Amino acid sequence: MIRNFYEVAPDLVQNIHDGEGVVRVSTIFDKFTTPMQFLHYTVLPPGTSIGVHKHGSDEEFYVILEGSGEMELDGTKQAVAPGDVIRNAPFGSHGLRNLSDKDDLKILVFEVRQ
Questions:
Q1: Are the beta carbons of 67 and 23 closer than 8 angstroms?
Q2: What is the pLDDT of residues 87-102, one digit of tens each?
Q3: 62 with 109: CB under 8 angstroms?
Q4: CA within 20 to 30 Å of 24's CA: 43, 44, 63, 114, which one?
Q5: Are 44 and 98 in contact (CB under 8 A)?
Q6: What Rg value do the Cα atoms of the chain yield, rounded?
Q7: Percent of the chain at pLDDT above 90?
Q8: Termini Cα distance of the chain
Q9: How far, in Å, CA of 100 to CA of 111, rounded?
Q10: What is the pTM of this model?
Q11: For residues 33 and 64, is the Cβ–Cβ distance under 8 A?
């Protein structure tokens, strides 16, 4: 199956994981025969965030496509930019913030069940 993530209608999610603002989340795939949970295309407009949270034993990855921001992993904050791939380890805390005042932060998010 081929799906173009630019053509998938986004859900507008307010305060995702107690973050700030409205984030656009497009579910590209969410039904798998493997331990994969979902694949999302997510857009964080300027000043928005995905709040710091945990996923239990699942492992999650963020792929930064466009824009820049600040990733928090287990209490440590680090700048992220296009090309960065962030591993959110099982039972680890993580959150992402778009610090820009003009550019969207565009990412792919996928989660794998343990």
A1: no
A2: 999 999 999 999 999 9
A3: yes
A4: 114
A5: yes
A6: 13
A7: 97
A8: 24
A9: 26
A10: 0.94
A11: no
Calpha distance 114→35 (Å, rounded): 7
Residue 12 has φ and ψ, to the nearest 5°, of -95, 115
User: Within a 10 A sphere around the Cβ of 57, how many other Cβ atoms?
Assistant: 8
Amino acid occupying residue 67: G
Instruction: Write the single-letter amino acid at 69.
Output: G
Q: Which two tokens stand for residue 17?
A: 């994981």
Q: Which residues pair with 64 in a beta bridge?
A: 107
Strand, helix or coil at 89?
coil
As given in the structure block, the two tokens for residue 113 are: 């069940």
Domains detected in the chain: 5-38+46-112 (2.60.120.10)
Q: Which residues, listed in sequence order, are joined to residue 24 by a DSSP beta bridge?
A: 12, 43
CB contact set of 31 (below 8 Å; sequence gap of 6+): none
